[in-house]
């Protein structure tokens, strides 16, 4: 038990020191405001506690009107100033803490953008992220709430100390009873808070699921499917299921709160009974004056509230230290790929890319998505990657892009394992158009350059060559028009084909020695498709260009074709060689051309 208490204290201490240091580094004035706020907040309750005794002493003693008036004026002015100042400081601290929050948000998201891509597919990671975010947002204030609470403890302890001193001067036995009750209460409250926090953690996966199903109905991406297939019913069932499960969590949390409140009020009840019976006895026997009676009664009332507040603050800090653990774990997650050990500088010129005995399994899967992959590609090569669905083509590309590292074997660039290069420098060598490419709700030029600074002339040139300049000219803002309508009702909503050409422009703009196109022409009409391949042939001179395509005709632009089957390379060679081999490629090619020929001869 002592061990777990020690652990708890260490965790709380670690979480607090982290926050203090963080806040101090980002916004010192926030902490100054917080300290001054607590001072101005501590003085009024102490004055209010003592003031009736001062007045009663004067009234029952010398009863000097001028003294009484002076006391009242000074008391009122001090209370007014303290309260105003404390509110002012509280508001100032609020906007100053937003700056700390912003910095923290940026850091969390930066981490998210750099963790291994595989993490984004791992539910455990996503739950951890959700817990870490609780540190930011829970209670509407997030971690700054803990700082406030920590400061509050100082103020409450000052008030509490004064109250203990007053009660001790009345009767030490009464104080002892009070302290025992308070101890019992604090132990119970700690248990309740722990149970509450555990439920909070457990409900995270359901909250994540709920936010997914809530989003499905408003996301235009799903709108068509839902409407055409009347998918709202099944989705609504999921939504209701999540809501119901969460409702159960909330109910259980409130049940814990009820128990906690009951216990707290019960302790309060005993304390009140003891104090009133004792005080009435003391006054009726003439052992204490009326003035001291008011002081003691005020002190006893303050004892309960300040004790409760101290317990509350300690428990809140304790609860947040669990979230802090999630933040710490999240922030310290290794970024294996991003931060990998760099042993080599990137070469100034790209020469070759080689797969040597490469095998790959996705996280959580026993199945080899790729196995025994061996191939050599050099600058200037045009490679087509073909194969049936699920054969491993996209996985092959993802490994080149280092979205994942091979499970076995290695990939070499200019003869050096790509893991030895700095990841950021390495990806500067590659431009890609993925099957599921994405355009962002930013301006058109930012979508192409993916940077705040764009070379507009180059973008215009690329758009001209891809034949999409006319679409841009329709907009007054030109390249500054915002893509999609999420934030601008005049935004540019490109058709599938134009969107694909914008994604291709992004790859051309990046101008790298390796270009990878995964189903780049799926949304293009036959004329555009043919034009794109011809232009690419021109644009990718001296570069390594890798195309994945299900349209076998596109392979005619390539000098080498890699045929995948069940995660392995089944065949490799030129179109002529593979057709001569009469195997997988020949089969795929013939199957497709048969449809065209039959259609032409009217037999389809
Ligand atoms: N993120 C993932 N997690 C687990 N398994 C995956 C993942 N992505 C793909 N796979 C599996 O890996 C295998 C190869 O998939 P891949 O997407 O590389 O095939 P493909 O040849 O590109 O298919 P398609 O032509 O349909 O795009 C498949 O069995 C697929 O189910």
TrEMBL record:
SMART domains: AAA. The keyword Nucleotide-binding applies. Residues 353-591 form the ABC transporter domain. Keywords: ATP-binding, Membrane, Nucleotide-binding, Transmembrane, Transmembrane helix. GO terms for cellular component: plasma membrane. It comes from the Bacteria. GO terms for molecular function: ABC-type oligopeptide transporter activity; ATP binding; ATP hydrolysis activity. CDD domains: ABCC_MRP_Like. This is ABC transporter, ATP-binding protein. It comes from Holdemanella biformis DSM 3989. It is found in: Cell membrane. Its main location: membrane. It is a multi-pass membrane protein. The keyword Membrane applies. The chain crosses the membrane at residues 29-56, 68-86, 157-184, 276-297.
């Amino acid at each position: 038990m002592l061990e777990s208490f020690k652990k708890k204290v260490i965790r709380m201490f670690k979480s607090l020191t982290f926050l203090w240091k963080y806040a101090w580094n980002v916004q010192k004035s926030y902490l100054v405001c917080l300290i001054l706020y607590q001072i101005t907040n501590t003085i009024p309750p102490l004055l209010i506690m003592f003031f009736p005794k001062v007045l009663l002493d004067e009234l029952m003693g010398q009863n000097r009107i001028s003294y009484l008036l002076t006391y009242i004026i000074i008391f009122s002015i001090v209370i007014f100033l303290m309260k105003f100042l404390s509110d002012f400081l509280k508001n100032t601290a609020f906007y100053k803490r937003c700056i700390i929050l912003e910095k923290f948000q940026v850091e969390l998201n930066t981490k998210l953008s750099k963790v291994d891509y595989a993490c984004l597919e791992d539910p455990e990671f996503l739950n951890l992220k959700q817990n870490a975010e609780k540190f930011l947002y829970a209670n509407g204030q997030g971690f700054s709430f803990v700082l406030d609470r920590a400061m509050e403890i100082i103020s409450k302890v000052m008030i509490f100390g004064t109250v203990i001193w007053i009660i001790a001067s009345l009767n030490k036995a009464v104080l002892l009873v009070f302290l025992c009750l308070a101890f019992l209460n604090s132990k119970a409250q700690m248990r309740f808070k722990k149970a509450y926090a555990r439920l909070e953690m457990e409900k995270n996966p359901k909250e994540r699921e709920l936010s997914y199903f809530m989003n499905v109905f408003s996301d235009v991406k799903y709108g068509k499917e839902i409407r055409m297939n009347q998918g709202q019913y099944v989705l609504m069932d999921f939504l209701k299921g999540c809501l119901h499960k969460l409702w159960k969590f909330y109910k259980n949390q409130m049940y814990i709160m009820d128990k906690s409140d009951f216990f707290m009020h019960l302790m309060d009840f005993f304390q009140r009974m003891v104090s009133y019976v004792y005080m009435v006895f003391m006054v009726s026997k003439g052992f204490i004056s009326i003035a001291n009676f008011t002081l003691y009664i005020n002190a006893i009332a303050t004892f309960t509230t300040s004790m409760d507040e101290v317990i509350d603050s300690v428990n809140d800090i304790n609860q947040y230290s669990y979230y802090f653990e999630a933040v710490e774990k999240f922030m310290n997650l290794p970024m294996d790929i991003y931060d990998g050990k760099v042993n080599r500088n990137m070469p100034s010129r790209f020469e070759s890319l080689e797969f040597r005995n490469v095998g790959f399994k996705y996280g959580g899967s026993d199945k080899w998505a790729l196995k025994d992959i061996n191939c050599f590609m050099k600058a200037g090569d045009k490679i087509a990657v073909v194969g049936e669905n699920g054969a491993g083509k996209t996985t092959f590309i993802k490994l080149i892009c280092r979205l994942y590292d091979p499970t076995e074997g290695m990939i070499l660039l200019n003869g050096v394992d790509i893991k030895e290069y700095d990841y950021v420098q390495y990806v500067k060598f590659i431009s890609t158009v993925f099957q599921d490419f994405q355009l962002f709700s930013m301006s058109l030029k930012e979508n192409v350059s993916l940077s705040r600074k764009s070379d507009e002339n180059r973008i215009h040139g690329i758009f001209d060559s891809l034949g999409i300049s006319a679409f841009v000219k329709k907009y007054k803002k030109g390249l500054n028009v915002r893509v999609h309508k999420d934030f601008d009702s005049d935004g540019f909503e490109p058709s599938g084909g134009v969107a694909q050409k914008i994604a291709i422009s992004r790859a051309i703009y990046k101008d790298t020695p390796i270009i990878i196109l995964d189903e780049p022409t799926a949304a293009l009409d036959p004329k555009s498709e043919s034009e794109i391949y011809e232009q690419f042939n021109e644009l990718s001179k001296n570069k390594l260009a890798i195309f994945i395509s299900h349209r076998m005709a596109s392979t005619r632009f390539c000098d080498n074709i890699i045929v995948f089957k069940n995660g392995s390379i089944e065949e490799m060679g030129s179109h002529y060689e593979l057709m001569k081999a009469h195997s997988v490629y020949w089969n795929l090619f013939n199957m497709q051309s048969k449809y065209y020929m039959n259609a032409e001869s009217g037999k389809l």
